[in-house]
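Reviewer 2 asked us to include a model.

Predict the structure of this chain.
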Amino acid sequence: MRAVVTSPRPVTLLGGADLATEDLNVALPIAPAVVCADGGARHALAHGLDPLAVIGDMDSLPPEAAAAFADRLHPVAEQDTTDLDKALGRVEAPLVLALGVLGGRLDHELAALHALALHPHRPCLLLGAESLCALCPPRLALDAPGLVSLFPLGPVSARSSGLRWPLDGLALDPLGRIGTSNAAAGPWSVEPAAPRLLVILPRQGLPLLARALLLAPRWPAPARRPRAPSPR
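Predicted model (structure tokens):
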């Protein structure tokens, strides 16, 4: 998949769900470049932001935003993926900080987590009203005491240090043992064996988690997904 945006700076990606002005206030100093996923362009227009691109199927793009950003619309016509999936796969940046993708409909939130799993080589951090969520890279290290929740998207093993309940030797599985409500008293690290482990932290840990993701190694790009057959 060819990148639409290649940015040397972290990118704030605006989704179509509601977001607070405070979300932008904490995100833009960390990720000053802006990209919109379809209807997220309404937030850029409302807050006077100048996005590099608007990516999506354009089915939820308000007419006024379409007119304002007409020179940077990148339509993706297929309906087999979500707008976050479409955008994340076409933005190459050190980090994508996604707003307006958590806190709305539960099915949309689940689809956002699905998009993280589909693009493990694109470091992406989802900002919610109370929590942060990212796909754990091959090694994640933070000095952030407090709650550390880990949730497997599929069967995966992991090593850890500094956690109250170590992960070493455990078989994590969404239908078996999960790792929510763990904790750390000081510095900690997690090393999953595969890109299937979500890390969930309190919102106030945003600067630390963003920096840790910027410093972390990346997963390799996955094999290309087969294209869905065209409807007849």
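The radius of gyration is 18 Å. The first strand starts at residue 5 and ends at 6. We have added this to the supplementary material.
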